[in-house]
Design goal:
about 200 residues, mainly alpha, 10 helices
């Protein structure tokens, strides 16, 4: 499953991030996170539109994102296929980065995290499974009393975790890139119907 591979990739890169130690983390985040002001200075920084989506501000930020990736990603991957799922994940992440770049073109604050990509996956799940509840999404994880609750509740909870993760950050040089969340979510809403139709046509 590609979903598990992405989870492992995010974990591995976070370990590399932690290995920088102390003040070096800020420099590492500055180099590989998305800094709009740096992108304006030259094309070399364009790679950070993607690399920034594999960095995280702390354990809470990482774990909350990966839980949502696992819970929402698996059913989406099963519906659209592995190759299209990777495309959806990567494009949503990059579109989220671009949204932050456009909204904050002169910002010196690095944007990091897989939130844009995961917002796209969550949007895809809402498109593919509009009537899904917590029980149908992951019956093992939820009690019987809440299994009929719409998965939209998880989306709101995820947004709350993004807010809290900024407080529990490893580095003081990052903030919440809300435009990245919105850009990734919009990307998922637009791409999913196209990916679903192509898969059905095969």
């Amino acid at each position: 499953m590609v979903t598990f591979a992405l989870v492992l990739a995010n974990l591995a890169i976070f370990v590399v991030e932690l290995s920088q130690g102390g003040q070096n983390i800020d420099a590492f985040v500055r180099r590989w996170g998305l800094v709009p002001a740096d992108v304006r200075e030259g094309p070399a920084a364009l790679i950070t539109l993607l690399t920034s989506t594999f960095l995280h501000a702390g354990w809470f930020h990482l774990v909350s994102n990966l839980v949502y990736l696992g819970v929402f990603g698996l059913p989406v991957e099963r519906r659209v296929g592995a190759a299209r799922f990777v495309s959806l994940y990567a494009i949503s992440g990059v579109v989220g980065s671009l949204a932050y770049l456009v909204a904050q073109p002169t910002s010196q604050t690095p944007a990091i995290g897989a939130s844009g990509a995961i917002a796209g996956i969550i949007a895809a799940h809402l498109v593919l499974h509009p009537g899904a509840t917590l029980g149908t999404l992951a019956p093992v994880l939820f009690l019987h009393v809440v299994e009929s609750t719409p998965t939209l509740l998880l989306l709101l909870l995820w947004l709350a975790t993004q807010l809290f993760s900024s407080v529990a950050s490893l580095t003081t040089s990052t903030g919440i890139a809300w435009w990245a969340h919105l850009g990734g979510f919009a990307s998922g809403l637009v791409l999913t119907p196209v990916l679903r139709k192509r898969r059905m046509a095969r």
